[in-house]
Design brief:
The structure is a single chain. The C terminus is likely disordered. By secondary structure, the protein is of the alpha/beta class. The chain is globular, with a radius of gyration of 23 Å. Helix 1 packs parallel to helix 2. It is built from 18 helices and five strands.
């Protein structure tokens, strides 16, 4: 994977290439960026640049055999760790090594893919994956061996925020004092979820969302007309993975839209209508019947929609990128019901639900309780002065 194959981010490419050329390669690096921003392909391109010994500013030359191994994600000095869980393939003590072939396919076919895409590929979407202590022991073992080609060896830990406490503590010493010519690259979307003791040992590089121009150019290269490419790039909000999903009509957001609209319509019917409570209960049961990762992703989607509605309500439409594809539902008509009197409480309830889902609470109780609370909050009136000012 080469720097030239990665969308946008020329300043980050230049920084990484320049630091490698000058020999300033930090032994522990933290790549922080939102979903679909290219942290994973950039990390692999950087690893290829370092291991294959390129010094030209673009890793297209160098050692041809080395580059060929990276082309199939099978270089012996490039190691990976990523969230996994026990499933049909691995009944107990699952570690990344058990899923290496699936991982190679994922990186080659969906380098901008998210955690849910990965779980779905390996059939563990109904579970909560993690990087556990068994994985940490494997990492220590791999890095204790000499480099196969005598140069650098690199350990890339994808979605490192999924590392549990036991694994993180086991890796602390190794992160601080790794063997010679050993580099850690940790990739996270939310650095606050990573232990402070881990973060303090890493040199951090922040990735911005991708520019609309870079996404639209990539979509046009795949055959989309310019107007459609621009529309999807705007709706994707810097997330190339979402842009591809929307192009292929395969975004999980399309399911989340249906659930969200179903809840909103039931919520508005519930005022003075006891029969609508039954619809809310059915809604809660449907969402609760999915996997926990799906539930968390849906709740995060709800937070995003509510924030977008707030922006529209307060006349900041130029910042609103989201579009709901369900027939008959317009975000502009929903927006007046999200205001200063309920936005904080709505967000807090959704964040609390994510917390309880993560800790294996009873999903039916969580979503039934949430549906009733959110329904009450939606019927809260805005402050009269602010309401008139927002129009």
């Amino acid at each position: 994977m080469l720097f030239k194959d990665i969308l946008g981010l020329s300043h980050i490419k230049n920084h990484l290439a320049t630091s490698a050329d000058s020999g300033r390669i930090s032994h522990a690096q933290l790549f922080v960026g939102p979903e679909g921003s290219g942290t994973l392909p950039m990390a692999i391109a950087y690893a290829q640049y370092v291991i294959c010994g390129n010094i030209s500013g673009e890793n297209s030359g160098g050692n041809a055999a080395c580059n060929l191994k990276f082309g199939s994600i099978s270089h012996p000095d490039m190691h990976f760790a990523f969230p996994v869980a026990n499933g049909e393939k691995v009944k107990s003590h699952a570690v990344s090594n058990h899923y290496l072939q699936e991982w190679r396919n994922f990186v080659l076919e969906q380098p901008y893919g998210n955690l849910f895409d990965w779980y779905r590929l390996v059939g563990i979407e109904k579970k909560q994956g993690q990087i556990g202590v068994d994985e940490a022991q494997d990492i220590v073992k791999k890095l204790s061996l000499k480099s196969y080609e005598g140069g650098y060896k690199i350990m890339l830990i994808w979605m490192a925020e999924k590392m549990n406490g036991a694994a993180a503590n086991k890796l602390l010493k190794l992160l601080e004092e790794p063997p010679e010519k050993t580099v850690f690259i940790l990739i996270v979307e939310d650095e606050e979820q990573l232990l402070q003791t881990i973060r303090s040992r890493c040199q951090t590089l922040h990735f911005p969302p991708l520019a609309e121009g870079a996404i639209s150019a990539a979509l046009k290269a795949e055959g989309l007309p310019e107007s459609e490419a621009m529309r999807l790039a705007h709706e994707a909000n810097g997330n190339f993975n979402k842009a591809l999903d929307l192009k292929n009509n395969d975004s999980e957001d399309l399911v989340f839209e249906r659930w969200f609209v179903q809840w909103v319509r039931s919520a508005f019917k519930a005022k003075g209508n006891k029969g609508a409570i039954h619809e809310l209960l059915l809604w809660g049961n449907e969402v609760a019947g999915t996997g926990r990762e799906t539930q968390k992703k849906f709740l995060q989607y709800c937070i995003a929609v509510i924030r977008q509605a707030m922006l529209i309500n307060y006349n900041a439409k130029e910042l609103a990128y989201m579009r709901i594809h369900v027939d008959g539902f317009q975000l502009e008509k929903f927006a007046p019901f999200v205001h200063e009197n309920n936005i904080l409480a709505l967000t807090q309830e959704l964040e609390d639900a994510i917390y309880h889902v993560e800790r294996n609470g009873n999903s039916k109780i969580i979503f039934t309780d949430l549906s009733i609370k959110l329904t009450r909050l939606l019927h809260k009136k805005a402050h009269p002065v602010t309401q008139s000012a927002g129009r």
